[in-house]
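Ticket 4471: requesting a sanity check on a complex prediction with adenosine-5'-triphosphate. Repro inputs:
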Amino acid sequence: AEKTIKLGVIAELTGDMPAVGASCRNAAELAVKEVNAAGGLQVGKEKMKVELVVEDNAGKADQSAAAAQKLITQDEVVAIVGPNASRYAIPASEIAESEKTVLITPWSTNPKTTMDEKTGKPKDYVFRACFIDPFQGGVLAKFAYQTLKAKKAAVLYDVASDYNKGIAEVFKTNYEKLGGKIVAFETYTTNDKDFSAQLTKIKDAKPDVIFLPNYYNEVPLQVQQAKRLGITVPFIGSDSWGSPELLTLGGADLNGYYFSTHYAADNAAPVAKKFIADYEKAYGAKPDDVAALTYDAFGLLFGAIKSAGKVDREAVRVSLSTLPDYKGVTGDMKFKADSRDPIKSAVILEIKDGKFTYFTNAKP
Amino acid sequence: MSASMAGIEDIQLEVRDLEVHYDGIRALHGVSFTVLKGEIVTLIGANGAGKTSILRAISGLMPYGGSVVFEGQSLKRISAHRIVGLGIAHVPEGRGIFGNLTVQENLRLATWQRADKGEIAADYDRVFAIFPRLLERQHQLGGTLSGGEQQMLAVGRALMSRGRLLLLDEPSMGLSPRLVQEIFRVVEDINRSGTTVLLVEQNANRALRIASRAYVLETGNITLSGTGRELLGDPRVKEAYLGG
Amino acid sequence: MNTMRNPGWEWLMAQRWILPALLLIGFGLAFAIPEYNLLNKYVQLVMMYVGINIILTVSLNLVNGYMGEFSLAHAGFMAVGAYTAALLTQKVLPIADYPGLFPLAVLAGGLMAALLGLIVAIPSFKVRGDYLAIITLAFLMIVKSVIENIDYIGGPRGIPGIKKLTTLPWVFFWTVATIWVVRNFVYSKYGRGVLSIREDEIASDLMSVNTRRVKFLAFMVSSFFAGVAGALFAHLLQFISPRVFDIIKTTDVLIMVYLGGIASISGSILGAVLYTVLLEVLRPSNFAALVSWLPDVIFDPLNQYFIRHLGVWRMVIMPLALVLVMLYWPRGIMGLREFRWFVPKRDLDAHHRHVAHGGSHDAPHGH
Amino acid sequence: MSEGIIYWLQQTLNALQLGSIYALIALGYTMVYGILTMINFAHGDVFMVGAFFCFLAAVYLGLPFVPTLLLTMLGAALVGVMIERLAYKPLRNAPRVSAIITALGVGIFLENFTLALAPYPKNIPALLANATWNMGGVSISSLQIIIILLSLGLMFVLDYVVYRTPVGIAMRAISWDKTYVPLMGVPLDLIISVTFAIGAGLAGAAGTMYGLAYPVIDPYMGIMVGWKAFISAVVGGIGNIRGAMIGAFILGGVEIMVAAFFPSTYRDFVAFTLLMLLIVIRPYGILGQPRTQKV
Amino acid sequence: MTLLTATKVKHYFGGLCAVADFNLQLQSGELMGIIGPNGAGKTTIFNLITGVYRASEGSIRLRDVELVGKTPHQITALRVGRTFQNIRLFRDLSVLDNVRIAHYAQVHYSPLEALLHIGRYRREEQRIIDNSHRLLSIFKLEHLAGETAKNLPYGSQRRLEIARALAIDPELLLLDEPAAGMNPNEIDQLMEFIQWIRQEFKLTILLIEHQMKLVMGICERIMVLDFGQTLSEGPPTVIQNDPKVLEAYLGEGSIG
Ligand SMILES: Nc1ncnc2c1ncn2[C@@H]1O[C@H](COP(=O)(O)OP(=O)(O)OP(=O)(O)O)[C@@H](O)[C@H]1O
Ligand SMILES: Nc1ncnc2c1ncn2[C@@H]1O[C@H](COP(=O)(O)OP(=O)(O)OP(=O)(O)O)[C@@H](O)[C@H]1O
Ligand SMILES: [Mg+2]
Ligand SMILES: [Mg+2]
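Returned structure tokens:
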């Protein structure tokens, strides 16, 4: 039989964030289908087909590790894409690191995912396709203070979720450094649907802007409830807003608000436009940022394998870390020699007429 | 009077070759007997002889082999709550009072299958006339009644369901001598007013005295039968059940 | 009690040497497997999960099965053990220089969990049934909330980069220790006290059982081993966060306990093995590999339309299987029964003193 | 009005709304819980299925509010009865905990089965016009009022059914001991099925109302809600309708007020500690009574 | 010598006064009966003595130890054993375990010895097993040692309950309606049996019973309770003919 390149995916297909897992799997399958449709990947002199092994982690840390171990030792994949949430990506990355296999997490923004806790240095084999929390928190603080000219800000975030809490804290630090005042720093817990107590408190504190670094399935509820309580100030958010689902779920309630994310569909490069069209054709829905980042993770991998010229884990790692500027759906990215986090920029989108519209590019 | 001499229309309950199993172990080995209209029939037997099992089978609380025919109708595949509707009332062993219901609610529950409002009211009066204590305790929770009161309630409940055949499982258990007398008197009264009674009792002396006929049950088999008087005089019964 | 009457089985169960023999072989293998890579690392990892799950299941069975309460706090105790041990190995003990200190950390995790077991044990003197279930649930939520609010231990971000100290021999050792101690407990006056509390607490007290002391011990032993399991888990996964120990984790352990059977050590072992292994076997690619012997005409469409989508469906199949098992064995597969290997010989003999040789059954409720 | 009072009033209103939402779910929960004394882990998931039925009816059939609500209740009731017949009835004479675990299994099944069909969260359209009034700084919405009234109304209806009607007496009798219930002429299976149907129908209604109040639904939305219903029912006193209501309001009140007057990070800690103390102080719930069991 | 003294014991359930003014002096070695109408408070008195309920007022002393305020297991450890009006065996446990459990206070090993099966564990366990078997064989239950208690016929369950009560090595044995559900013939056997264990185990017995045959047959002294108060007290012959007792309890008729 012909030789194939085996790549693994670990996705949150079941458990607490199935939508993330579904997008990740969809984009992965799309990426692989495209490559194979083109006859396969050019490795050295031959074209090789790509074979995908998708594993569910059931939204559990231990199953993430098991899935990683299985993909590496049993399926002998060349590299792994996923998991997405940091709390699943970290245990999987520990396995990848000790088994010397490249793992790219599309969406884990926790700095610790790619860092070796013991040495304080970056891990050798663990990469990511997205920017990290401190970067984004900084961007947003600046945006709120300088662009929106908000002197007082309130934050409402999920205290039980690493991502939300991380960004909220970075935002707070940076915002205060700029001279702004955080008038309310309120929390809730994952799966809460009622935020009225916290929002009433926030209303009482009279902020100029409210920051919601929360997931797109919670943000509409928060905004609606805030409006019902008579809160009129604008809201801003982070990349966790960046799913077209936000618009379906939130409707017109969200018009006029801003959030930072990885790319702007309407201001995108041709690669992105093509991806969006293909994805929509295949799955009947617009890709969210997890899908886009997963697609880019595969793009990075394909590039690395191609330039390595052979199907070898170590070679893939070396060529990935030295990959020249990669033009992906979510923008241009490149890994610095001493970092596993790509250098890439964020964009700020505005929600206008029920659509995401490009507002500005942002650097911290 | 024996069963064979009675006309078909007189037979109210006919039990044939009744077999019952618990966890695969046979507790009744083909028991047969009949109860005629208007009789008090008593079943006596040692602990574990299977008396309770017979009653449970008749009122459809457990599956069995053999047949049970009530007023010409086989009860075999009829569910327990329908059997009540057909006219069999059962005062179970241990009384089966619903402790979280008041006395009144316990009584009311037993009228589930009845629609005759006026007569229900009359039956309440009848029950309270028989057991004035229940009237006093109408609003007390069943679970806090004393043993004797609970027994009264259990019998009262059976009366409320207007059974033509009353199955009584050890109604005198745990009652003071005075109440025992009272219960037996009530059983006779109820019988006199037209209700057939199938009575299971440990207090063989008394039971045989009020019984028209009796059967002796030993480890799942009927070993003796006759009129109450006959058995009361039978030396075998005397030795095994009436004590020295 | 009547499912296993065939003579071969009877003979097997009567061989008292088998368990010690298995133990020895087990220990040998536990060292040999990682040393010589007899099995691939994925299988090794799953084996370690199985071991940890056995510890969790056997220890929870003590409270939920033997004592008949419905505790939901197990993941909470596990968290306490995990955090205590991880903090010790990360920040206090010089583990880098002396990896041999690891057992100390595990022990400390267990002890800390046992200490917090008091929070549940004390209300249990007064509160029972579903009301106690709420208390255990509240305990779990409180533990989670406390961890989330302490930034020093990572808050919701948890502790990454924990040293990988949990190895197959250690897991095996602790699994055996758990089984042994819990079994010893069960076959002692305290264990019988626990059983009698399940049956009838008032009567138990009136038959001289010091119910408070017994509950106290049962909760302590149970939470101790939950803590141990947590400590091992932390140093296997190399990462812990409050989310890892949420109500879902408790639910998993509950399923394993009741699947295997209440008040049965062999049942708990069975439940943990079945559940853990089945979840892995039902992974699409594993499942595909299992049925790959099928002819292509059958396999290809099966794979194309079903197996590849098993990722989501395995979580549909698992609970269905659980329901079916419960319908068939309402007390769990081994409910109230025990492999005679686990029953002390003295107990076995005591129950069969006057029963003719061979006319035996599996000891009821493990006695 | 001073700002402090407005704040107070607003938070009280918030508490009332959250409490009634919990009550809506807890009432159905406690019905089933009351008679079978079985922690019905699947209740929260029937509630979730109800919310999805509501979504289907509103979006795919384009139905207005009332038919949607009725259809949802009917659908949920059917699901409830099916679960009872297939998964609980065979275990009626088994230990209580077997049915609890079966319920757990059924719940997980419902979650993941729904998930397999609908991996992304769904949005429930606004079936009711939701007006918001501002009364001197305190805002009240029509939906809030509807939910509060609905849960109060339901409580009275259920309370009447359980304590005043023959069906209610039968239900309570079953909860005490079902062995001899048939001897009263009561069709045991039917009553249990009816109770399940009512309980599940209420879960469906709660799913709809919840969906309107918090319009984003997903397959796992029932888990936490199920636990909260369980807590409400137990805190109020198992099987006690009014108790469930009170329990729900206590839970809602504590959650809102702790967040309102403490740093909100401590909410869960304080709320659950209070809950624990409450149970220790009242080991049979607020309105519950120990089952008088004579020694 | 007085073994048990109760003075001015009162007990309320909510508003209900179940025991109004109970006084008792029980001599060591005595066999005394308590009778009285249903709901007179007889069982409640047993519950007060054994610590199931805490007396609202008054004092109950075993020799000079005050029992009010002690927990049931503490009282049991002072060698007070009892049976129940409604059988309360550990239904799902084996017959042997039912008896072994009641040895709890007499098994002397520490939790640590129990967890590791070391030290005194083996010796003590063996001793308890032997003693349990001894009791079971006295009650003709030895062949059923491995049987689950709930599968026993009613009569055997009653016997097992007494065996279990004896396992705590009581000095004072409280029997609550031991003859309930027995036919007259079985009651005869029970009477003999009670007298025999009394000798064999050197027991002081207090028993509640509605079967006059048994009460009048074996009790040396009888106390009649009504509405939580002593109505009459004395030897059987006196009680039998006391008009108050006839009126409140025995009714117009005979015994049995
Ligand atoms: N639930 C049960 N499980 C197993 N065996 C049972 C059960 N109920 C009764 N048996 C057995 O069936 C036989 C007949 O029991 P049954 O209760 O019918 O006797 P009985 O004549 O009513 O006795 P008693 O006078 O004690 O009430 C006995 O041997 C008893 O042990
Ligand atoms: N736990 C309880 N709660 C409320 N009332 C109770 C409780 N236990 C007993 N009682 C009441 O106290 C009174 C005495 O009850 P007790 O059980 O002592 O009577 P008894 O003399 O043993 O009667 P019997 O001969 O019927 O067993 C009764 O009126 C009873 O209803
Ligand atoms: Mg009987
Ligand atoms: Mg009594």
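Notes from triage: The first strand of chain D starts at residue 122 and ends at 123. Leaving this open until the requester confirms.
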